[in-house]
């Protein structure tokens, strides 16, 4: 996970004057060890509270400003012996970040009938106050600290917090203007900024085209060497000259530099007509290389597609790039499978057993070359789409897996889901379009949890009846 994107967890252990304080401190230490082992960034309370633990309502006053100063993105409130519910709930309320509630499963009473803790009871008290204050929170079932469900719950919550952080700070570069005949990608930029904090950075197409030409001229020997290496495993067919290929390498370098300089999370790209007309080739190769550099590029001026991809990569813990295909045709033999297809995808996601080529688009006759043709690798998939306007913004997602299917041109994969007719109806009834963002792995649960903390958005799980 890139360090700049990792959420910072406010580690806020809760105790109370009743039950064993010594045992609560022991559990706090064990939890810190787990967070360190799992390489989770966190801020503790050792600098502001005795034993680094909230045990009194008066502790709200020093804890909240300290967590704000440290810039936490989420809050973890483990109940280490019982719980000071008023303090826990007020800290969560005032910090205003995603909050996770958990406590260790209580052991059997001691021989004399006493108990070291009642963490389950304490959590029920805190959850009641959180609900009274209308504070959304996440919860891991009461379990042992070494149980898999605890580790998985923490990791899921941290990823969800990463999605929420990403949404709050997202910045998308828009390369060129919207293509006239793609009405499906019309968006309300002011609404995206007002409701979700998503910023758009316009990138002038004419200036970028000029800089691409200058970069090719300045870096020609280096680009020629790199192209020679790519030619060992990629076919470049029907390109009019070498410069029409080298333009993609210059595009990659310039776009990644813009992303790093402007702190961008991803891009939407005009795709055509200006760029292929100028370079006599599409720049899909360059887009795929930018994807693999960690900045998803949504084709065809699809702003909400870019947002979908950034959110999906955050939900996956930035474990790999996403790709943004069209949902096209149903499988000829499998009623629950559909074709994911088109334009460009990260080369790292290719099936290693099939060839890769850059060639002409088959669907748009007479256009220049530059579209990627290859089969995607096999594996589990998560599909995601952020879409909407006005009061109908929604984050829809579902999970599936690749299956065998007929060969087709351009990049593609056949995806099988639990109930495609249900998916189809939900996608058609909207507010979605034919573009979707996909990544390898299953992370729909993370997106569902994250959506609870993002205002003005509904969540929909595809396929569930």
Q: What's the layout of helices and strands?
A:
Blueprint: E1 9-11, H1 21-37, E2 42-43, H2 60-70, E3 74-78, H3 85-95, E4 99-102, H4 119-132, E5 138-139, H5 148-169, E6 171-175, H6 189-196, E7 199-203, H7 205-218, H8 220-230, E8 234-236, H9 243-262, E9 266-269, H10 274-279, H11 284-292, E10 297-298, H12 303-315, E11 326-330, E12 337-341, E13 356-359, E14 371-373, E15 380-387, E16 394-403, E17 412-416, H13 420-429, E18 437-440, H14 444-451, E19 458-461
Parallel strand pairs: 1-2, 1-3, 3-4, 4-5, 6-7, 6-9, 8-13, 9-10, 16-19
Antiparallel strand pairs: 11-12, 12-17, 13-14, 15-16, 15-18, 16-17
Helix pairs in contact: 2-3, 3-4, 5-12, 5-14, 7-9, 8-9, 9-11
Explain how this protein is built.
The protein has 2 domains: 160 residues, Rossmann fold (3-Layer(aba) Sandwich), CATH 3.40.50; 292 residues, L-fucose Isomerase, Chain A, domain 3 (Alpha-Beta Barrel). The radius of gyration is 25 Å and the shape is elongated. Helix 3 packs across helix 4 and helix 5 packs across helix 14. It is an alpha/beta fold and 465 residues long. The strands form 4 sheets. Strands 11, 12, 15, 16, 17, 18 and 19 form a 7-stranded mixed β-sheet that branches. The protein contains 14 helices and 19 strands. Helix content is 37%, strand content 18%.
Stretches where pLDDT is under 50 for at least 5 consecutive residues are: none
Largest sheet: 7 strands, mixed
Tally of DSSP β-strands = 19
What percent of residues adopt helix (DSSP H or I)? 25-40%
Level-2 CATH architecture of the largest domain: Alpha-Beta Barrel
Indicate the mean pLDDT.
Answer: 92
Strand content: 15-25%
Radius of gyration: 25 Å
Indicate the overall shape.
Answer: elongated
The count of helical stretches stands at 14
What is the fold-level CATH name, i.e. the topology of the largest domain? L-fucose Isomerase, Chain A, domain 3
Structural class: alpha/beta
Query: What is the total number of structural domains?
Result: 2
What is the terminal separation in angstroms? 34 Å
